């Protein structure tokens, strides 16, 4: 480091004077010397330590100057000490001699001064020589160690390379520019099926398949010219026994110490087994593991190809099959028997299509699809469907049990060539759905108009939850009226809660449409409970403003009537409003009450015990309907829709239908039940119903369904 400039100037040291004065003189000389020398070279010490070191050197030098007998040897040590302090700059010695010469000028004789300065210079020169020699020795030793370490690392690297070369699972070969082997490892020889020492007589171009050898020559030329190519290629080699193996080939260029192209190294890996496994996995990804048939992914791809290339005259036909009662087989006889049945069904479907350009696929579960590329000799749809069910209907025997199934089939015959594949599959699926709704072993032909209607219905069903959430679906009410022949004797007998959807495109959708749509997606149960609670609250509000306590009518679907949570929902609705159970009239479909499982029957009995009034709906005169009246605690019956239709014609005593209706109503009234008719369109219809014995009617000509405000206005409630 460079020391700060001293504040005092050096003067020759005084030979006389007090010891304190001489000490101050030497301190000034040391500071000046340190300052000037520090500008010639870096001193790796703090300032205080530098001044202390130089003061020590000044003391040592002037002690030698005044020694008797005179001994200049300590001055040589002063010069050597400068080198030890890293003061080896180009002007360091000159600066030192100048400062010390002026400081020693007061000493006599002058020959002592000259001798001391010479000793300082000699000591400095000798120390510099020794330092340079030491540095050279250190450099030599460092170079020796570097060379020795490099040689050791080279040997280790070569040993590691040899170990990798010998033990690598991949084949490694080094060749010249002509492809002759310079060396190759055991793995390379194993891939070729020849001994390792026999490779020296072979050529890389010769062991490659004849179709791939030109590629390798081009690759060698590109690497030599500096053109890059994809490093790894999938190629073929020919073993010594003539077998062709799939390989992964990587080639790199080796250069000599001058950077010139020297040799090529080829890395080869046998991927035959991997290739076979890959093909197997590809097959499995496109085929069903159980039946071996193409799966949905493969079938969809094939469908698009066939649809576009089919003969415009004959086209193609898509059959979508679902095995009837397959779950009964698996539940009754076990999954293994079900798998056996699926395997046999797949084989039989393929046998039906033998001789045709067709594909049979398993889409999942017990669903199959058949795609036929029609020709002039292809059987028509009816014949094909008949053959399919006849073939599937032949029993198969598992042990001593014969099992057979039929199929429901949706058929899309000769679809347009530009039809989207997703749309075609959706059309086949919806056609199958319609076939299944008609019962087992039915088939249905694709109908564009019916398909459009189904799609509209499905779209409405799946968007209804959102419409309910934002308030598009609301609860409306329609008054029920007692029937009388004298004009003006009719009065409101109750209110029926209904759903109404104010659709932004289709307009108002009535209660029956809303119920059908809600039942499609499972929305009906939560909506039904909300309807009961909302209607009960509204009824409580109306009752506060009417002298006549009107009952609330709510019609349930079979699904709702069998809901295990129905009773709890009714209790919550009544508890929230404080209404008595007799205020609520629940309609339960008659055929749900006749069901074998009996959930609706259990709900009816509990509700009746609570005091809730139960109305049997869809009452049509079947023997089971009358049994409900005899065995169950019901308060009313609502006639089936066909009865309302019949009431629109004038009654005639000789009309068997009218006589049957009159007897039906009479039997219901003998049980003390209230008879209700819905769907009355005119007053004449109401009068016809009254003549038959109907007590209460509902019709738009009296009061159409409306919001609470609309109904309140119609009833005169403020």
From TrEMBL:
Q: Specify the EAL domain's residue ranges.
A: 457-718
Q: Which SUPFAM superfamilies match?
A: EAL domain-like, Nucleotide cyclase, PYP-like sensor domain (PAS domain)
Q: Which Pfam families match?
A: EAL (PF00563), GGDEF (PF00990), PAS (PF00989)
Q: Where is the PAS domain?
A: 157-227
Source superkingdom: Bacteria
| Ranges for domain PAC | 231-283
User: Which segments constitute the GGDEF domain?
Assistant: 314-448
One record GO biological process: regulation of DNA-templated transcription
Gene3D superfamilies listed in its UniProt record: 3.30.70.270, EAL domain (3.20.20.450), PAS domain (3.30.450.20)
- Which protein, by its recorded name, is this? Signal transduction protein
Native species of this protein? Answer: Longimycelium tulufanense
